Automatic annotation (TrEMBL):
Belongs to the peptidase M14 family. One of its GO terms (biological process) is peptide metabolic process. Residues 1-169 form the Peptidase M14 domain. Pfam families: CarboxypepD_reg, Peptidase_M14. It comes from Bugula neritina (Brown bryozoan). GO terms for cellular component: extracellular space. This is CPD.
Length: 349
């Protein structure tokens, strides 16, 4: 939940997306009006405990009261950020409990949100899903409403931790995604890291920032109408690795986006062999939302024409029937490949 004070002085409460087994990317609204958050503060500072809390807060389960470690794709980098704050704090890294919770201890002064207590619909999970932010929640002390006389001590305890945490924006990988021909930035280009299921977007000028813990990574840049590019980098504990991408335009990618539902498999140059055709067709039927009955004739008839036969029936009665009949010999490369690609296109559309 997020509570905001509007310009009219009215407090509005917004329900943020929850982690559920069925839908991890839910829309959110407030009092019937849709809201768009353009930029977010990357850290929430609160007082009630002494710990750096990192995503996920929510859990992929309907049993929401059970504490369980809820790992995000960027779990290693989140731990790295949380430890940067905790070890910059005068005492947080010791993990000592608050007097009111004598049994509560946090190793190195950090915790996974859901492992501490599950909270579906939290701000730091929302920011991770829908923006480029990696947000932490920092619990700054054991007293929820500290006295004015104690504020200087809070500042002294947290000052270096704040500065250390701010400096983490310069860690990882950063650069530009550029059009190779014009040199112009490619807005909203996608930056992904192999093995980490979380993609970020470049800004309007093609500039991007990707915070990563020290290690070796394969970074991929992509954009509609361009060939993707990939580079291997080694990230250290020092300044961010400067990594620019120059993407060349792709006629096939542009055509695929405009005419073929961006079906990447249809523009791959790898041939579909005879032994692979049944598996390829089964994949099309099982993943399609439109193809109920897919029949592709391909076995040899009495006149010697090669016509191999494939049939698959799905139970959803509202889906359409698709029949493809190839006029090319199935033992020819082009016959197999054209038919399978046409099947993908029809089932997708």
């Amino acid at each position: 939940m997020l509570t905001m004070l509007t310009s009219t002085g009215i407090s509005q409460t917004c329900t943020l997306p929850e982690l559920t087994p069925y839908n991890q990317r839910q829309s959110w609204s407030s009092s019937g009006a849709s809201l768009t958050l353009l930029s977010c503060q990357p850290t929430s500072m609160v007082v009630s405990s002494l710990v750096a809390n990192y995503p996920y807060d929510g859990i992929h389960s309907l049993r929401r009261k059970r504490s369980i470690y809820s790992r995000s794709p960027d779990d290693i980098s989140f731990r790295y950020l949380a430890e940067a704050f905790s070890w910059g704090h005068n005492t947080m890294h010791k993990g000592a409990p608050c007097p009111s919770m004598s049994t509560e201890r946090f190793h190195d002064g950090i915790t996974n949100g859901a492992h501490w207590y599950p909270l579906n619909g939290g701000m730091q999970d929302w920011n991770y899903f829908y923006t480029n932010d990696l947000e932490l929640t920092i619990e700054q002390g054991c007293v929820k409403y500290p006295l004015t006389a104690d504020l200087k001590k809070y500042w002294d305890d947290n000052k270096y931790a704040y500065l250390t945490y701010i400096c983490q924006v310069h860690k990882g990988v950063a650069g530009f995604v550029l059009d190779d021909e014009t040199g112009s930035g490619i807005p909203s280009a996608k930056i992904s890291v192999r093995g980490i299921n979380h993609t970020i977007s470049a800004a309007q000028a093609g500039d991007y920032w990707r915070i990563l813990a020290p290690g070796s990574y394969d970074i991929i840049a992509s954009a509609p109408g361009y060939k993707s590019a990939e580079h291997h980098v080694t990230v250290t504990d020092g300044e961010a690795v400067k990594l620019d991408f120059r993407l060349s335009s792709s006629v096939l990618e542009t055509w695929s986006t405009a005419k073929d539902y961006s079906l990447k498999l249809n523009i791959e140059t790898k041939d579909i062999l005879s032994k692979d055709i049944s598996g390829a067709l089964e994949d099309i039927v099982s993943s399609s939302i439109t193809a109920k009955h897919l029949i592709i004739p391909v076995a040899e008839d009495s006149e010697g024409i090669d016509i191999l036969s494939y049939s698959s029936l799905k139970s959803q009665q509202q889906q359409i029937n698709i029949a493809l009949i190839g006029g090319l010999r199935a033992n020819e490369n082009i016959g197999r490949n054209v038919l399978v690609r046409l099947a993908r296109h029809l089932s997708q559309g």
